[in-house]
What we know:
Elements: H1 10-13, H2 18-34, H3 37-45, E1 53-57, H4 63-71, E2 76-81, H5 84-87, E3 95-97, E4 110-116, H6 124-137, E5 138-147, H7 151-160, H8 166-177, H9 182-192, E6 198-202, E7 206-212
Parallel strand pairs: 1-2, 1-4, 2-3, 4-5
Antiparallel strand pairs: 5-7, 6-7
Helix pairs in contact: 3-4, 6-9, 7-8
Amino acid sequence: MSARSTDLELLDVETPPRPVLKRVAGFLAFINRWFGGTAAVAAELGQMSGVVSVLDVGAGAADIPLALARRFAGLKPIAMDLSPAMLSLAAGLPRLRGDALRLPFRDGSIDVVVATHLFHHLKDDQIVAALLEFDRVARRGIIVNDLLRRRRAVLWISLLSLWANPYSRFDGPLSVKRGFTLAEVDALARRTGLTWLFTRERFGHRFTLAGSREPRPAASGTCA
């Protein structure tokens, strides 16, 4: 396909009425559950030992951290998003509003930082900055899960969202067009110097950029 699209998604520029936002969140949860998003994060997290605290950056309505909490005993996820409207739907776990480029946490205060469907909303330089910020906060590892930019993936999500809400019908195909090739992900990771991050293709036309390292000493607190 051509280069990454720079067009803005509807949810980047406006917040729909709450009933519609619930439908958007429900559609995203459906996609994550049945088309690889939740499974991709769980697979990476399952390879990391000693994980208790997980920060999901751009968590939206928090379907993935809630699923992780059910799957991994003792896990304590935190949902963070820039949208207070989305966060208002994230019941059942700690949540806070925050920016991926300025995480309100101390160095090494979270075991694993997770981001799903966040990076395709960012420019390349912002992605590099976000990864470095994740590295600052993460004591154990990082898991990024996002979309591969492919023609058949655009067709796939276009068909899947035909009966969805208008926001998902518009944003779904555009999200893929704003996605990545594996080579682009590798290049962005190299720019960070975080050589312990590795790219893997996953089911559902998506990828993970993830890795773990020897844990840093735990911070004396969590929030900065």
